[in-house]
């Protein structure tokens, strides 16, 4: 893989990412900014962050194959990497059944999308797939540099590493709440968790790892919320992030919940050393 991600990065929707925040997290020592929320195919949001920074990798988390034309994405990739070689990782995924009318046969659509990227000269080494289940994890192993799973737990990371084998990148996302009060932390986390529990690809995946129908119902059980949005002091959260690394992850993308993520970025940068 061309881009260097480091052990820990940040994940933030592209609508909430500013160049000032990118500069701040680069100065704090984070290795990667993951641009979430289906950034547009022109990769303009990515390019602005790269223009404003010096070293940090910028990754898409993820470009949605249903609303971002593959040829346009390829053209954008070449434009951006010519300007910033070795600093772009293209994360690609099929999104969610509930959000996409064309969602039928997403695996086939993803394969076809990768075929276009191949034809347009986007190297396997510069792309990863949003992968939860074994079939797409195998595709990430065979047709990309690795996988960027979202809304998972260390048990999934362990299984994903087994499927990917040694070598391919495994870079899960992990939500965090910098708050030592459990009830208050859950109150912060639940609106975000509730949104994803309406999406069957996530709930089915969580049930593969021991969570029950009751756990994934409504706004989620306390056990589920605590696992999907780890909370506590910076040191306690850092230990939970390390659990992904110990389970086989190469990199963890942290997504602090709450109005202002910067205090969490600063505290975790210190705790992680």
UniProtKB/TrEMBL annotation:
Domain Luciferase-like positions: 18-251
Gene3D superfamilies, sorted: Luciferase-like domain
Pfam families: Bac_luciferase (PF00296)
Top-level taxon of origin: Bacteria
Record-linked InterPro entries: Bact_Lucif_Oxidored, Lucif-like_OxRdatse_MSMEG_4141, Luciferase-like_dom, Luciferase-like_sf
Protein name: LLM class F420-dependent oxidoreductase
Lineage, uppermost ranks: Bacteria, Bacillati, Actinomycetota, Actinomycetes, Pseudonocardiales
């Amino acid at each position: 893989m061309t881009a260097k991600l480091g052990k820990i990065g940040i994940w933030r929707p592209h609508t909430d990412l500013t160049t000032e925040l990118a500069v701040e997290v680069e100065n704090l020592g984070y290795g990667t900014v993951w641009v979430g929320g289906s950034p547009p195919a022109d990769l303009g949001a990515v390019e602005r962050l790269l223009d404003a920074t010096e070293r940090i990798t910028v990754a898409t988390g993820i470009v949605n194959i249903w609303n971002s034309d593959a040829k346009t994405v390829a053209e954008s990739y070449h434009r951006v990497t010519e300007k910033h070689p070795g600093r772009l990782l293209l994360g690609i995924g099929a999104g969610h059944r509930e959000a996409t009318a064309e969602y039928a046969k997403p695996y086939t659509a993803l394969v076809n999308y990768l075929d276009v990227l191949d034809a347009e000269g986007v190297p396997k080494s510069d792309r990863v797939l949003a992968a939860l289940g074994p079939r797409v994890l195998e595709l990430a192993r065979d047709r990309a540099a690795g996988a960027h799973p979202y809304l998972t737990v260390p048990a999934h990371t362990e299984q994903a590493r087994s499927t990917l084998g040694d070598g391919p990148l495994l870079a899960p996302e992990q939500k965090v709440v910098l708050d030592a009060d459990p009830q208050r932390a859950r109150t912060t986390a639940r609106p975000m968790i509730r949104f994803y529990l309406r999406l069957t690809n996530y709930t089915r995946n969580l049930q593969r790892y021991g969570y029950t129908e009751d756990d994934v119902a409504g706004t989620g059980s306390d056990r589920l919320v605590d696992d999907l949005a780890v909370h506590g002091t910076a040191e306690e959260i850092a230990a939970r992030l390390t659990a992904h690394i110990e389970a086989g992850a190469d990199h963890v993308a942290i997504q602090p919940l709450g109005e202002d993520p910067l205090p969490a970025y600063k505290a975790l940068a210190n705790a992680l050393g």
